[in-house]
Amino acid sequence: MEPTNLEIAATMASMRERGIGIIYGRWLIEGAPRVLLIDTKTAYGYMDEWKTDLWNISSIPSPPNDDETNETIVFGYLVAWFLGEFVCHEKNKAVIAHFHEWLAGVALPLTRKRRIDVTTIFTTHATLLGRYLCAGSVDFYNNLQLFDVDAEAGKRGIYHRYCIERAAAHSCDVFTTVSHITAFESEHLLKRKPDGVLPNGLNVTKFSAVHEFQNLHQQAKEKIHDFVRGHFYGHYDFEPDNTLYVFTAGRYEFRNKGVDMFIESLARLNHRLKNAGSKMTVVAFIIMPAQTTSLTVEALKGQAVLKSLRDTTAVIEQSIGRRLFERSLKWHDGEPMPDEKELISSQDRVLLRRRLFAMKRSGLPPIVTHNMINDHDDPILNQIRRVQLFNHPSDRVKVVFHPEFLNSANPVLPLDYDDFVRGCHMGIFASYYEPWGYTPAECTVMGVPSITTNLSGFGCYMEELIENSSDYGIYIVDRRTKGVDDSVNQLTSHLFDFCGKSRRQRINQRNRTERLSDLLDWKRMGMEYVKARQLALRRVYASSFTGTEEEEEDFIPGVEQKISRPFSVPGSPRDRSGMMTPGDFASLQEGREGLSTEDYVAWKLPDEEDPDEYPFPLTLRTKQPATDNAVMEAALNGS
Length: 639
Hints:
The protein is α/β, with parallel strands linked by helices. It is built from 24 helices and 16 strands. Among the domains are: 189 residues, Rossmann fold (3-Layer(aba) Sandwich); 61 residues.
């Protein structure tokens, strides 16, 4: 496939003449966007020359044994090469290049040094040093101003990568992050205050189920029921109707993802449920990829035992039905009604007894579904051992660690991740370092309540946007101002309160949660990208726009409106008016650059299908604009 754009075609031809492999095509996803693929291996002959040049122009070192950095440098020089060639052919239109993450950032100092006529935007989704520091059990957010960033990066062997990231942040025309919490972090670690926030969105249409999402929850939950029946065979003494499924998922970052806090809160929840005499059972799933060899024999045996029992009972059920039918045909007035003793044959009893004996189990149900490599060193398993959550029959909280991502071909838990989320009752993401957090956002658009923290971008966004977010199924744990023990207790209380909800209350809450999905739609989040590009163009081509620099304001204003709590609990708000977009929430301020939001501010949450007797309006709270520092503190403190 060849490009229809003559300038791109000429640029590709020029690079191909120099031996660079480059392909133009369509990405096979919804919308079929146009893409360029550059084969970096065809340029490895230039690597040493380019690494020397990078040192000369920006003093960025590049160790010879770091393959990832080598690939980053080659890719960056190829991108700068492409942009330089392209603007030589494109004489009429302004060119905007948007770079994401340090891996794409080498081209930024190159375009600045070479004075390539390109408008540039750089978005960091997390900082390298921030991720390393948080994983190392430091009090990160209270000491941001105190870190010697060069020394800390050097101690962790990432100084050269940190230099690339910092150079990218300082070389771009507009610097952005995905959340306010990361903006604050970037200001201190990368030494440049971001110009705006570009929140991550979701393709809400992909997850939309409209009136069917409760049915989809029921269908997926039944498949999880089947897994639980097999996994806990021999000790399955809890009722499905009194069972809640909660989960956490993501990359295996034990502390950053809050798995340590999650497991500790499960132990405390188990204690509280026992003391309260609750009949509710909580099955907690941990879905995080780790090093494994295979599924355990016990996990496979459990599903085999379940299938065998189901097949046997189906055969017996069919034979009982046939005998009951025949016996009923021969029934006469005055004779006794058909009796179960004559309906169940001795052969059926023997067959059933064999299946029941096969379900005997000497040990406890397993914690993990796979054979782990070095399970004695695994942080998750060691934490579970420490709090003694061993799936004992008396435990009200059961734990299942599935150290692989889910897919429908899994012989033990045959569900894709999206379907698994729909089948659960709550997602728990007690992250300590989470610049945005797609997992709770995905829960929201699928109508699944979630617990997040005020140290995640998503948590700060929802807390800032929604008044009493817990009424909408978004529970936020304070990890910013509270100590670890207090945060764990708060998380435990959220879980305990959720266990006390009736089925009707949970359904109502799911309805409210699902109706927040429009807040996360790319159709609205994407407006921030439009404004970022306008800002970049204004900075580079200021003479082409009206207005002066003195008209600019600070980039992160206060939230002017908040969605109030539902008027009826556990009911839901019905009538909506005058809602807001993420653009009103923060990011690039319209007043600063003379931008307009008239075409996208007036949106409404979707109407609920069954109206209440009284149409409670969803009122909005007005707040005074805040200063930079006040807003940043508010984002961090969750206020």
